[in-house]
Amino acid sequence: MSTTGMTVLGFILIFAATTAGAALVFFFKKDLSPRLNTLFLGFAAGVMVAASVWSLLIPAIEQAGESYGSWSLLPALVGFLAGGLFLVLVDKVVPHVHQGTDEEEGLPCRLCRPAKLFFAVTIHNVPEGLAVGFAFGAAAAAGEYGGFVSALGLAIGMAIQNFPEGAAVALPMRAASGSRVKAFLYGAGSGAVEPVFAVVGYFLAANLAAAQPWLLAFAAGAMIFVVAEDLIPSAHIAEHPHLGTWGVMVGFAVMMALDVALG
Questions:
Q1: Shortest CA distance to 194 belongs to which of 14, 49, 48, 50?
Q2: 69-75 long-range CB contacts below 8 Å, 24 or more apart?
Q3: What is the tens place of the pLDDT at every residue in 12-43?
Q4: Contact, 21 vs 164, CB < 8 A?
Q5: At 97, phi and psi to the nearest 5?
Q6: 3-state helix vs strand vs coil in the chain, percent to 5
Q7: Phi, psi at residue 96, to the nearest 5°?
Q8: Which of 29-55 are b and which e, b meaning 16 or more Cβ less than 10 Å from the residue's Cβ?
Q9: How far apart are CA 25 and CA 32, in angstroms?
Q10: Who contacts 144 (Cβ-Cβ below 8 Å, separation ≥6)?
């Protein structure tokens, strides 16, 4: 496959998987059982943690080593923390409600609850799109075919975790919105930001070669922030500890295997 084909496929996959997961709202008569919800979100958390480490932080440190020498950890450290701070700022501005805790954040407004749930998921899909875009952009700047294969592996990993995540969003949204169609559109729409920000990330990384380690670490920090603030609380792992823990471990193992096999 050509490098252009892999890039386009990667951008499409991350959105298509979310849409496919959201489509389960037409086949499930009830919401996800608490145990299945724990398993799905635990798996998604494991994939995102592994992707942050194997596909983003380690490459960021390796790239920084070429320019920063003994200070190669600096871009990864600063970028990682900046990614978390970025989402803190977004949380303060965009009105939304966290599904796992029912905590409302953002500027005061009169948006309905389904809209606030939608914004909560949309915000947290932005880092995933950026991560995939940064990976493909870095590969384009390096001009190495193997870099595109590795980036496609990251996109496949994000797509795998987006499927259960899309279902975990759309099914509860049905109860909040009172409509299967609206729930599906909310779920699919939340994933539409991923290819958009993937394109943004691609052009940033492709045209700002010196900033690539910082950008990769930024995406990693943002994704870990999402895992800690949203996925883990929403999974209610404490109620089903073994199931949730194995979900995280299997998700991590799947993403690690993808990265090693295609990296």
A1: 14
A2: 72/213, 75/213, 75/214, 75/217
A3: 999 999 999 899 888 877 776 888 888 888 99
A4: yes
A5: -130, 135
A6: 85, 0, 15
A7: -165, 170
A8: eebbeeebbbbbbbbbbbbbbbbbbbb
A9: 10
A10: none
The per-residue pLDDT for range 160-200, each reduced to its tens digit, is 988 887 887 788 778 777 788 888 988 888 889 999 999 99
Count of positions (residues) in the chain: 263
- The partner residues of 104 in beta bridges, in order of sequence, read 97
Write out the H or E segment, with its range, that includes residue 71: none
User: Residue with structure tokens 């959201």?
Assistant: 22
Mean pLDDT of all residues in the chain? 86
With tokens 């701070």, the residue in question is: 85
Residue listed under structure tokens 């303060």: 92
Any idea what DSSP says for residue 143?
T
User: In this structure, are residues 76 and 60 in contact, taking their beta carbons and an 8 Å threshold?
Assistant: yes
Q: Which two tokens stand for residue 166?
A: 């899309």
Handedness of CA 147, 150, 154, 159 (dihedral sign): positive
Quick one: tokens of 44? 């998604």
